[in-house]
Amino acid sequence: MKSRDPLNIEVEFRSRFNKKRYLALQRFLASKAKDLGRDNKDVYFFILPDKLLKVVNNISKKNAEIVLKLNKIGRGNDFEELEIPIDPKMVEGWVTFFTHLGFRDMMHSYQRRQNYEYKGVEIALKWSKVWGYHLELEITVRDKRQKAGAETKIRKVAQKLGVQLMTNKELKDFTKKAEKQYKKEHVKK
């Protein structure tokens, strides 16, 4: 989403739905929200027990970054995140670098994304092979004491959009299943 300081706290929630709901949300957001632009990404996720490391090629924005989330999806809705800009031409090199460091559990995913801002919440309306049609609602804060207010604001926007936010258990179960399926399909025997 937006360019950020190196360390921030993202308060974020996710929702999954079918194509019909996706198209309805797309129409609603196009007419009612501020369009922040297309944000397609090619992402390499390194799966760690308690964190998430990503090498991200922000295709639409023609930039790239290494992102370390200091929490794993399904373990709370706030993520301290460190972002380091890199040259987009070096994405494959960084993936190779992390692989040689021993980060072998990896998922590669292309994400079609359109970003919006609605009532103070950043929204990424997305599609990927792993997640299907979904959205991410997010507010970035500088201090954990702002987390409760951000969560309340996001829940109100989700209610206005008519989407059901995934619980931490649902997120944990979904990502575990997705990681297992990806390994099954892509790990060489």
What would your notes on this structure say?
The structure is a single chain. The chain is α+β, with helices and mostly antiparallel strands. It has one domain: Hypothetical Protein Pfu-838710-001, CATH 2.40.320.10. The protein has four helices and nine strands, in the order βαβββββαβββαα. The chain has helices at residues 19-32, 91-100, 147-161, 168-186, and strands at 7-17, 34-38, 41-47, 52-58, 63-69, 78-86, 106-118, 121-128, 132-141. An eight-stranded antiparallel β-barrel has the order 1-6-5-4-3-7-8-9, surrounded by four helices. The longest helix is centred in the last third of the chain and has 19 residues, at 168-186. The protein is globular, with a radius of gyration of 16 Å. It starts with 6 loop residues before the first strand and ends with a helix.
CATH H-tier superfamily: Hypothetical Protein Pfu-838710-001
Amino-to-carboxy terminus distance: 37 Å
β-strand amount: 35-45%
Q: Which structural category do the helix and sheet elements fall into? A: alpha+beta
Which regions are unreliable across 5 or more consecutive residues at pLDDT < 50? none
Biggest sheet: strands side by side, in what order? 1-6-5-4-3-7-8-9
Tell me the radius of gyration: 16 Å
Let me know the average pLDDT. 90
Biggest sheet statistics? 8 strands, antiparallel, barrel
Name of the CATH class: Mainly Beta
Based on Cα principal axes, name the global outline: globular
Overall structural domain count: 1
Order of helices and strands: EHEEEEEHEEEHH
> Which CATH architecture?
Beta Barrel
CATH topology: Hypothetical Protein Pfu-838710-001
Q: What is the tally of helical segments?
A: 4
Helix content: 25-40%
